[in-house]
Specification:
The chain is built from 11 helices and 10 strands. It is α/β, with parallel strands linked by helices and 261 residues long. The protein has one domain (12-260): P-loop containing nucleotide triphosphate hydrolases (Rossmann fold, 3-Layer(aba) Sandwich). The strands form 2 sheets. A 6-stranded mixed β-sheet has the order 6-7-8-3-9-10, with helices on both faces. It binds adenosine-5'-triphosphate.
C-alpha cells in the first residue's frame, strides 16, 4: 500500500455504531474501533455504560440501528445461524458456571462445539475436545467430570476451550476473570495471552478492572454514557488520562496507578 500500512484488513472494524433496545433511546452511539490481527484491545467503563451492548453487536446478537460491523473486511450483516462469520467471533463469559450446562462433562461441552462448527463425528469431536482441554490446562482428571463438579477456574478453561473449538479470528472476553478467585485470575489471563500468541487470535477484552487492561493490552478504549470518551495507548492513558471520566477511573485506584508509574 502506498502509505506503507499493512495490507491485511483489520479482524474487526466498527464504524459509527448506534445501538439500543426496543424503543428506548440509544444505549451506545458513535462507537468506532478497529482490531488488527493478533491484537488485544481493552474496553473499560462504568457499569451500564454499554460495554456488553457493544459486545452483543460485535457477536451479531443485537442488530445495530446505524453503522457497520466488518469482520475480516466482510459486513457482519446477515444474522443467519449458518453465516460462516458467526464462527469467526466467539465469546468467553463472565460467569463460567452459568455459561456451562452443569450436567455435561467438560469433554462433552467442548465436543458439542466441534460438532456444531466443524461437523465432526461424535467420536472425533470428543477426541478433539480432550486434546483442546489438555492444551488449555484442564487437569486430565477433570476432562470427563461434569461441569457442576469443576472449580470456577476449571469452568473458565472449559469456556475458553469451547470458544476456541471453531478457531475464531476474534475472541470477545467480557469480564472473563471478575467472578474468579484472585489466585485464579492471573492463570486465566495468562492462558488467554498464551493462546492469543500461539493462535494469532485477536481479542476484545472487556473489564472494569484497569489492572487487567494494563496487564493484557497495549491499546484500550474507555466508554462512558454509551460513547467512547478516550481511545489510544493503554500506558499513555493510564499515565496521563485526558478525559475527566478516565481521570476519575484512574484516580479511584491510586495504589495500582502508583505501582504502574
Ligand atoms: N436486553 C436489554 N433490554 C433493555 N435494556 C438493556 C438490555 N441489556 C442492557 N440494557 C440496558 O443497556 C444499558 C447498558 O447495559 P450494558 O449491559 O451494555 O452495560 P455494561 O457497560 O456492560 O454494564 P456492566 O459492566 O454492569 O455489565 C443499561 O442501562 C442496561 O440496563
Amino acid at each position: 500500500m502506498p502509505d506503507g500500512s499493512s495490507a491485511r484488513a483489520p479482524v474487526l472494524e466498527v464504524r459509527g455504531l448506534r445501538a439500543g433496545y426496543g424503543t428506548a433511546p440509544d444505549t451506545i452511539r458513535d462507537v468506532s474501533l478497529s482490531i488488527e490481527p493478533g491484537q488485544i484491545v481493552g474496553l473499560v467503563g462504568e457499569s451500564g455504560c454499554g460495554k456488553s451492548t457493544l459486545a452483543k453487536v460485535v457477536l451479531g446478537l443485537l442488530r445495530p440501528r446505524e453503522g457497520d460491523v466488518l469482520v475480516d473486511g466482510r459486513r457482519w450483516g446477515d444474522r443467519s445461524s449458518r453465516d460462516p462469520l458467526r464462527s469467526c467471533v466467539q465469546m468467553v463469559f463472565q460467569d463460567p458456571y452459568a455459561s456451562l450446562n452443569p450436567k455435561l462433562t467438560a469433554a462433552e461441552t467442548v465436543a458439542d462445539s466441534f460438532r456444531r462448527w466443524k461437523g465432526s463425528s461424535r467420536r472425533d469431536a470428543l477426541d478433539e475436545a480432550r486434546r483442546l482441554l489438555d492444551r488449555v490446562g484442564l487437569p486430565r482428571t477433570a476432562i470427563d467430570a461434569r461441569a457442576e463438579r469443576l472449580s470456577g477456574g476449571q469452568c473458565q478453561r472449559v469456556g475458553v476451550a469451547r470458544a476456541l473449538a471453531c478457531e475464531p479470528r476474534l475472541l470477545v472476553a467480557d469480564e472473563p476473570t471478575s467472578s474468579l478467585d484472585v489466585s485464579v485470575q492471573a492463570q486465566i489471563l495468562n492462558l488467554l495471552l498464551e493462546l492469543q500468541e500461539g493462535m494469532g487470535m485477536s481479542m476484545l477484552l472487556i473489564s472494569h478492572d484497569l489492572s487487567v487492561i494494563r496487564y493484557m493490552t497495549s491499546e484500550a478504549m474507555v466508554m462512558s454514557g454509551g460513547a467512547v470518551v478516550e481511545h489510544g495507548s493503554t500506558a499513555a492513558m493510564l499515565r496521563q488520562p485526558r478525559h475527566p471520566y478516565t481521570r476519575t477511573l484512574v484516580e479511584s485506584i491510586p495504589g495500582q496507578v502508583a505501582d504502574w508509574a
